[in-house]
Amino acid sequence: MAEQIIVNKINDILGNLNNTVAFNAVSNQRQGDDRKMEALVAEMNNGQVATAIVWGANPAYDYSGAAFKAAFAKVATRISLNTTLDETTLLCTHAAPAHHALESWGDAEPKQGHISIIQPTIAPLFSTRQAEHSLLEWADSANLDRNSDQPYYQYVRAAWTSAVFNTQSRYSTPAAFWDMSLHDGVFENAPSGRSVSFNSAAAVNTGAVSQPSSSELEVSFYETVNIGNGQYAHNPWLQEMPDPVNRTVWGNYLSVPVEWDGKDIKGWRNLEDGQIVELEVNGQKIRCTVIRTFGQTPGTASIALGYGREAGGCAAGYGVNVNPLLKNEGGFTQYYLTDAKVTPTGDVEKDFACVQHHHTMGVQGKQGDKTVNVDEAVLAFQGSLTERSIIFQTNVKDLDKLETQMEEFHEHSGYLNSKTLYPTNEEYFGTGLKWGMYVDLNSCIGCGACQVACVSENNVPVVGKNEVMRHHEMTWLRIDRYFYGDVENPKVVYQPMMCQHCDNAPCENVCPVNATNHSMEGINQMAYNRCIGTRYCANNCPYKVRRFNWLDYTTADLWPANEERVFHGAGDDTPFYADNLVRMVLNPDVTVRTRGVIEKCSFCVQRIQEGKLTAKRESRAIQDNDVRTACQTACPTGAIVFGNLNNPESEVNKAQKNAGALAYQVLEEINVRPGVRYSAKVHNANEELFS
Questions:
Q1: Is 675 helix (H, G, I), strand (E, B) or coil?
Q2: Of residues 571, 574, 572, the one with CA closest to residue 555
């Protein structure tokens, strides 16, 4: 609170209030109040609550577990509207599961004056009922049309065509207003002219500002980008998406510094990835697995929230629940702890799954005067022509120097590639369509959205923690993370790595049955029903992007009458996609692969075909934006650009042209001629701050 007051005073002094900082469209998001939750628990303990309704929350897991459970048990009627059978729902006397968000009607005002309509995209799959509908039924609302097939739809429409309609003057009839609001999705009626003032004369209590801890070890707790604080833990796609920083899956891990000023604090310098330690705070102990992390501040450790679930589908049984360790100060939950103690146990997690060491391309870096594998140290690419061209990076002040080096590199690679038995293939790929991709490493933030989109679009199976530990993950697109610079305070670059669709593809030459071949449009294709699983192509791929399907994850090669569906994976008896309901997640436009075949990125060939058919129906040539790959569509920063390399006006060619000499092909010097180009990483940091 004190920090916020100081920020407000600074903005007031700078004249930002009611200018840069506007108050005419206040955000209505994140309105939770820990103090009110604390008061509710006290009221339940005192028997003041007769009925408790839980909707979209799981306090039995993520809020003072034992204290909440004891108080919740004293409530006579406990109703859950949650869509999953989570820890709180199991404690309820009644369960009235609501529709999924994609099955629901509704409206929301996330920002004042911006009201959006929530529309369903599918019909309800189960005998559920919308949560708002249930509340209106229990309240015996007279505004609910119980004779309608969709009572809550009629309720929402009636509210919009009366209350919301009267706040505007653009549309003359309620019906026209509803139709256009439904079409637009958002109705904007932001208030104007609202201003606030700040009492500049008020004293600021600087003593209330949080101070750095003087304890030897401080532990911080954070939400991950994939499962948040546990609300998305039941989604296996997100569980198997590697954490952008520590590159682990299916669990949370205690991040500790790689080095700690050279000190050996209670045996920490002897810790290695995968070792199990005991974390003790205020007399409470948990066992967790350690991972050493570059850039972790000395004297600190960190671990993610959201794991250690006891219920909730595939969420249960992975990682440790750290919520019981959190403390409450002044009515607010604190997401850090001091005076913590970490004790090595000598045990090692048997299925420690970190993909940082998987599918590497043999990159080497410098650690002092010693040359080591990039998995063991931070990457320090020197720009030498003798280095492998994986990552190019520089500071903006040295940009001209890097451009000169890369021009020399391109010239040197061109010379090497001219001394080859391979033809140029220009006569094959110089006309018509030639698909390619450009990835801007300066825009990529490593969020993983492209990887999950690829999994969803292309029916890539989830394999489970045990199989990931064995290097058997199936993701077609991985995001390689490289550190470079100082070990204690490194910089980072993320590189999405998919099949490069090389014109001189090494995988094609070694396939004994011609299962992988090159199309006239520059795509490295896979004929799954021809593949016999020799894996010669995977061994010959310099980018290590081809995946061998070890197990029958989808039961695609089992007879329908065979009822014995044994999954020889992570101890589960049924594959994720064996259930008929789960099979609905599969994309019908993409082949479902069987075990024993190689699979990899196809540049979303099904989307390419869809774009061609659309152009054909409209009697026109295919255009640049007719085809967008799944990864490109999902990327929140626009780092991925896809298109026709033979079209000089295509977005992919414009992006490469704008990058100039900074655009390069990974492993350009080995003459495989990939169809994907990347940009050099340019950072604009004040180097004096890092010295």
A1: coil
A2: 574
Which CATH number is 366-683's, of 3.40.50.2000, 3.90.870.10, 2.60.200.30, 3.30.70.20?
3.30.70.20
- Residue keyed to tokens 């024993």: 596
Reduced to 3 states (helix: H, G, I; strand: E, B; else coil), residue 290 is strand
- Does position 363 have pLDDT exceeding 60, yes or no? no
Angle at 373 between CA 639 and CA 401, to 5 degrees: 55
pTM of the model: 0.84
Nearest to 156 by CA among 132, 185, 122, 188: 132
Torsion from C-alpha of 264, 268, 269, 272, nearest 10 degrees: 170
Q: Mind listing the pLDDT tens digit for each residue in 608-631?
A: 999 999 999 998 888 888 899 999
CA 469 – CA 466 distance, rounded (Å): 5
How many angstroms separate the Cα of 287 from the Cα of each of 82, 308, 341, 604? Answer: 30, 11, 12, 43
- CA 159 to chain CA centroid, Å, is 36
**Whether 116 contacts 108, CB under 8 Å:** yes
DSSP letter, residue 293: E
Q: Fill in the DSSP letter of residue 488.
A: S
Please state whether beta strands 435-439 and 676-679 pair in parallel, antiparallel, or not at all (unpaired): parallel
In angstroms, the CA 687 to CA 684 distance is: 9
**β-strand partners of 300:** 218
Return the number of other C-beta atoms located less than 10 Å from residue 284's C-beta. Answer: 11
Q: What phi, psi does 528 have (nearest 5°)?
A: -60, -40
CA atoms of 35 and 303, how far apart (whole Å): 25
Q: How confident is the model over 462-514, as pLDDT tens digits? A: 888 888 888 889 999 999 988 887 777 788 899 999 999 998 889 998 999 99
β-pairing, 598-599 vs 547-548, is antiparallel
Task: Please tell me the CATH code under which domain 218-357 is placed.
Answer: 2.40.40.20
- List beta partners, residue 301: 219
One-letter amino acid at 585 equals V
Judged by average pLDDT, the poorest of 92-101, 197-206, 212-221, 276-285 is 197-206
Q: Residue 62: which residues within 8 A CB-CB, separation 6 or more?
A: 229, 230, 305, 323
236/151 Cα distance (integer angstroms): 34
CA separation, residue 438 to residues 234, 496, 623, 674 (Å) = 34, 11, 18, 11
Smallest Cα–Cα separation from 293: which of 258, 243, 252?
A: 258
CATH of domain 2-188: 3.40.50.740
Residue type, 553: Y
3-state helix, strand and coil shares in percent for the chain, rounded to the nearest 5? 30, 20, 50
**Cα separations in angstroms, 664 against 504, 519, 628:** 17, 23, 22
CATH 2.40.40.20 domain residues, the chain: 218-357
Print the SS3 string covering 526-556. Answer: ECCCCCCCCCHHHHHCCCCCCEECCCCCCCC
